[in-house]
Write a structure and sequence with these properties.
The complex is a heterodimer of chains A (143) and B (235). Chain A has 2 domains: 2-31; 35-142, Glutaredoxin. Helices cover 56% and strands 20% of the residues of chain A. Chain A is built from 6 helices and 4 strands; from the N terminus they run H-E-H-H-E-H-E-E-H-H. Chain A has helices at 2-29, 50-66, 68-73, 89-95, 118-124, 128-142, and strands at 37-44, 76-82, 101-108, 111-116. Chain A has a 4-stranded mixed sheet with strand order 2-1-3-4. In chain A, helix 2 crosses helix 6. The longest helix of chain A is centred in the first third of the chain and has 28 residues, at 2-29. By secondary structure, chain B is mostly helical. The longest helix of chain B has 31 residues, at 171-201. The chains are: A alpha+beta (143), B mainly alpha (235). At the A-B interface, helix 2 and helix 5 of A face helix 1, helix 5 and helix 8 of B.
Chain lengths: 143, 235
């Protein structure tokens, strides 16, 4: 009797699992209508340090030289966000950006992914060539 | 310095990474200004170079206290976003005027507390001017909390995630503090020792010590003005 009870619970469980996966199937197989887009976002506070300004300049340069076409057709965008402005409070909290921060906001196959490059950016900020080369590499890998 | 950055980014050795992050913080532009002030303050005790060493250690301990306290608050679940935003946006605002004030106290231009002796504030400022130990501890605690965008990114963006990680722990902010205080400890020790030797040669310990206090006061004043300048958008 006990075994029978266990078996029924298992069977019902399997039934629900099967139903669940069936229900999720359409969402998985639906091809995304939104094309891949990367929003490069640099957050900053009101008072910006030299390194922070440098990170912006190098990022812009890497985008303009390596991804001019994508910048033009909107596949890649660059946005500067002041976290201390009231209007940006929501996006700053969403990204957890309290000061200078560099993010790749990737929109791919209908999904959003936030890639935090802040630590990397600060560590490489003193070497413009490496910064631009590695950022280009990261963007190419993400596209 | 690239090797130091590589160590700072190595997550498999958190203790070493925390130390490297501390050293990187110590020599980054904004904390460097506070560290120079602290060095000038500590090195002025050249009559007893050992006292400079103790002050340097207490300065590092002060930094460790602040960093560990912040680490603990975040460890216990405070929002990193809100804590970091508060400290990062207000650092220069508080630090500038405080440094100018301390500079003027060291230069004997103003006497906090007013009147002649007796007052608690008077006693406190006298202690700050004449005996460096307590002053160094308080300076360490204060300077650690003055985050600039760069040092804020290293602390909140790199050290705190490491501290909160499964292989992290609250010992990491302490190691980080040692890294931030080490340059001060070394330079203050060397300066106090060499100034002591030099002034002994010329038999002018007291005179040189007076000069060192003026130097410390001027450095505080300039650093304070530098911070006010940052906040006002001059730099």
């Amino acid at each position: 009797m006990k075994h029978l009870l266990h078996l029924s619970v298992l069977a019902i469980g399997l039934l629900f699992t099967a139903c669940g996966s069936d229900a999720q199937q359409p969402a998985k197989s639906t091809p995304s209508s939104v094309a891949t887009r990367i929003d490069v976002i640099e957050f900053h506070s009101e008072h910006r340090c030299a390194t922070c300004i440098n990170i912006e300049a190098m990022t812009r340069e890497a985008l303009n030289t390596g991804f001019a076409a994508q910048m033009k057709d909107g596949t890649i965008t660059f946005r500067l966000v002041n976290v201390e402005e009231e209007a940006n409070a929501k996006i700053a909290e969403e990204f957890g950006a309290y000061g200078t921060a560099l993010f790749l906001h990737v929109h791919k196959n209908g999904k959003d992914e936030k890639i935090d490059l802040t630590e990397w950016a600060f560590m490489k900020a003193n070497d413009a060539a490496t910064f631009k080369a590695e950022l280009t590499q990261k963007l190419r890998a993400t596209l | 310095m690239d090797w130091l950055r590589d160590i700072a980014m190595a997550r498999e050795t958190p203790a070493l990474a925390a130390f490297a992050l501390g050293v990187l913080t110590a020599v980054s532009p904004c904390p460097l200004a506070t560290n120079i002030s602290a060095t000038a303050y500590i090195a002025r005790e050249l009559k007893y170079p050992r006292a400079a060493l103790v002050s340097g250690l207490l300065y590092t301990l002060g930094r460790a206290l602040s960093y560990t306290l912040l680490g603990a608050i975040l460890y216990w679940g405070a929002s990193k976003f809100h804590v970091a935003r508060f400290f990062q946006s207000k650092g220069e605002l508080f630090l500038g005027p405080i440094l100018v004030l301390l500079g003027l106290v060291l230069l004997n231009v103003i006497k906090i507390g007013g009147g002649t002796g007796g007052g608690f504030l008077n006693k406190l400022t006298d202690r700050f001017k004449d005996r460096g130990h307590l002053g160094a501890l308080v300076l360490g605690m204060l300077f650690a909390l003055a985050f600039c965008p760069y040092s804020g990114a290293l602390f909140f963006g790199s050290l705190i995630p490491m501290t909160l990680a499964p292989n992290g722990g609250l010992h990491l902010p302490v190691i980080f503090a040692i890294g931030t205080g080490l340059p001060v400890l070394l330079f203050a020790g060397v300066m106090a020792y060499s100034a002591n030797q030099l002034s002994r040669v010329f038999n002018a310990v007291t005179r040189v010590e007076k000069v060192m206090r003026v130097v410390a006061g001027v450095v505080f004043l300039l650093t304070g003005l530098y911070y006010i300048g940052i906040f006002a958008g001059v730099f």
